[in-house]
């Protein structure tokens, strides 16, 4: 049984529970086994229209299809993928803050995949929320933003992202997920 100042972490390989005190958490003495096995997928403005909006640019795959496939792939490896989409900047900031910093340790995510969409070019607020969490993130774009209008070529996120994937359609999301599966959790993926 844990006290309010402790969190229980189960090592899936040995099925043993380890207690972590709040002192360990605050002093960053948490071992690699203390990962929550949760990732956050954030999709910004207008991505709820995927499959209907400009399919010649964004493709015919819907956001629901993308999320369903990613959630299933993550679950196959024992990882929970939390999916969020909003057309409202403040709502995205709230969710990033919650899952990245404010939630109980066990509810926080280990890393983030974000397609900020049009917020890419405008949102210092989302950038600051991502920075505040100190969680690593990958920026994903369905289209090649560098081959589009000049205003789409500036990102407020790229310089602080672990990486940027653009122009590969919905496959960019899976590439980002696979990166976290292999680099955060040291998993060997099926071909």
Account of the 3D structure:
- The strands form two sheets. Strands 4-3-5-6-7 form a five-stranded parallel beta sheet, sandwiched between helices. A two-stranded antiparallel ribbon has the order 1-2.
- α4 (89-102) packs parallel to α5 (124-133).
- It starts with 5 loop residues before the first strand and ends in an 8-residue tail after the last helix.
- Residues 1-32 have low confidence and may be disordered.
- 29% of the residues are buried.
- The chain is built from six helices and seven strands; from the N terminus they run ββαβααβαβαββα.
- The chain is an alpha/beta fold and 191 residues long.
- The radius of gyration is 17 Å and the shape is globular.
- It has helices at residues 22-26, 55-58, 63-76, 89-102, 124-133, 171-183, and strands spanning 6-11, 16-21, 38-45, 80-85, 111-117, 137-141, 163-166.
Distance between the termini: 40 Å
Q: What is the total tally of β strands? A: 7
- The number of distinct helices, counting runs of at least 4 residues, comes to 6
Order of helices and strands: EEHEHHEHEHEEH
Structural class: alpha/beta
Defining traits:
disordered N terminus; 7 strands; 191 residues; five-stranded parallel β-sheet; 22% strand
TL;DR of this structure?
By secondary structure, this protein is an alpha/beta fold. It has helices at residues 22-26, 55-58, 63-76, 89-102, 124-133, 171-183, and strands at 6-11, 16-21, 38-45, 80-85, 111-117, 137-141, 163-166.
């Amino acid at each position: 049984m844990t006290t309010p100042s402790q969190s229980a972490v189960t090592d899936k390989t040995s099925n043993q529970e380890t207690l972590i005190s709040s002192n360990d958490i605050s002093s960053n003495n948490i071992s690699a086994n203390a990962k929550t096995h949760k990732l956050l997928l954030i999709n910004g403005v207008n991505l709820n229209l995927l499959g209907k909006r400009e399919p010649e640019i964004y493709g015919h795959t819907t956001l629901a299809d993308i999320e369903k496939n990613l959630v299933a792939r993550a679950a196959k490896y024992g990882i929970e993928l939390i999916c969020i989409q909003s057309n409202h900047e403040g709502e995205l900031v709230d969710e990033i803050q919650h899952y990245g910093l404010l939630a109980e340790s066990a509810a926080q995510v280990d890393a983030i995949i974000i397609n900020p969409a049009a917020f890419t070019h405008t949102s210092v607020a989302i950038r600051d929320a991502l920075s505040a969490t100190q969680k690593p993130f990958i920026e994903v774009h369905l289209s090649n933003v560098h081959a589009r209008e000049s205003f789409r070529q500036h990102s407020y996120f790229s310089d602080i992202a672990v990486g940027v994937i653009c122009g590969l359609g919905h496959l960019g999301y899976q590439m980002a997920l696979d990166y976290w599966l292999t680099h955060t959790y040291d998993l060997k993926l099926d071909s």
